[in-house]
Amino acid sequence: MTVVDNAVYVGGARDSEPDSLDRTLELLRDRDSSHPGGFAWIGLLRPDQAELDLLARELSLPALAVEDAVHAHQRPKLERYDDVEFVVLRPAWYVDEDEDVQVGEIHLFLGQDFVVTVRHAETPELSSVRRRLEQDPELLALGPRAVLYAVLDRVVDDYQPVIRGLRDDIDQIETQVFGGDPSVSRRIYQLSREVIELQRSVEPLRDVLQSLLAETADDGARVMLHRGMRDVADHQAQTSESAENFRQLLGNILSVNAALVGQRQNEEMRKLSETSLAQGEEVKRISSWAAILFAPSLIGAIYGMNFEHIPEIGWTFGYPFALGLMVLASLTLYIVFSKRGWL
What we know:
Elements: E1 3-10, E2 13-16, H1 21-29, E3 39-45, H2 49-59, H3 63-71, E4 77-81, E5 84-89, E6 92-95, E7 100-103, E8 106-110, E9 114-119, H4 127-134, H5 137-140, H6 144-157, H7 159-179, H8 184-202, H9 205-216, H10 223-303, H11 318-339
Parallel strand pairs: 3-9
Antiparallel strand pairs: 1-2, 1-3, 4-5, 5-8, 6-7, 8-9
């Protein structure tokens, strides 16, 4: 069995530590007057179908809840099946090395004289929660609901480091956005997905806590438990508000980044246009001078042809006329191009 811890509590103190789950179940079945108000807390880590089926037969756990506990991937919820309650929690923790938010899952089965906690990840470990409860006999004497409160309190408190980690990431992203980092869009999207995943873990807890608070509101024997649940509800509300603010802030940052990217693209396009215009001006100048130089070459080519019958070949002023024609053609082209601003 994947039993992490297994103990029977009586009167707010650890009464016995059965050496096997079978022995724990036997104590629950044969509990007598020497164990008034006692309950067992069985902690499991990654149990398989067979292990949960055994508990289901012995503790009359609902089949649908057992199926959910095996396959996991459930949203936080509180479901009641006759004398058994089934609670799903989604703890989260921040991984500094990867700047990533990881989400786990904890399932709790609560009966009149037992609590079964099922974890599917090493984090968070519940041994510290158990030690804390054992140091508070008055609270632990309230039975399985005290365990549920302590686990809820741990899960909700663990959201705070996640909030701090996300806040630091958002501060870094703002610096990247205004620094023109081209890879920041991808990071904004990834961080938005992490915030949404956190919201999916935190938001449904509101209904769970409201239901639990309603049960203990008028119960004088469980005033301490009610106050503790109310404190957990306050922390849950703060976490939920922070996550929603982060989601909206990331949406605004994404819009600002898109605007800045568009502005930088427009600036690049403007520079490209200016460069193209400058290149066009240079091409016009080169083409104009090429045309000016081409005119004398054309005239010279015509007058340099070796034909017997060429106009003005016997003319005394033929050569000066050719030179003058070259100058006149070049000057005419120069004046035309200058008026058009091509030179």
